[in-house]
Amino acid sequence: MEPCDGTNSIPPTLDTLQALSLMARQGKSRLLVVDNGEMIGMISFRDIMEFFNLKVALDESIP
After folding, report:
1. Secondary structure class of 10 (helix, strand, coil)
2. What CA–CA distance (Å, rounded) separates 28 from 31?
3. Sign (positive or negative) of CA dihedral 20, 25, 26, 27
4. 9: which DSSP letter?
5. What is the pLDDT of residues 11-43, one digit of tens each?
6. pLDDT on residue 1
7. Which domains does the chain have, with CATH numbers?
8. In sequence order, what DSSP letters do the residues of 12-56 get, joined into one string?
9. 31: how many CB neighbours lie within 10 A of its CB?
10. Within 10 Å of residue 36's Cβ, how many Cβ atoms?
11. pTM, two decimal places
12. ∠ at Cα 15 (12, 19), nearest 5°?
């Protein structure tokens, strides 16, 4: 297990594309979501891709 720092954690307000960029730069597939020094969740590359796929599908279904 590695310590929580700026290379593997993000605030809950960080933009999704910025999170993806951090994942790519740091070679991480998951990031901890930290608010006021407390871990409140985790987000993965897979989570983000599933969200984007759902968003595209919904956008395409609306005329």
Report:
1. strand
2. 7
3. positive
4. E
5. 999 999 999 999 999 999 999 999 998 999 999
6. 64
7. 9-61 (3.10.580.10)
8. TTS-HHHHHHHHHHHT-SEEEEEETTEEEEEEEHHHHHHHHHHHH
9. 23
10. 7
11. 0.80
12. 85
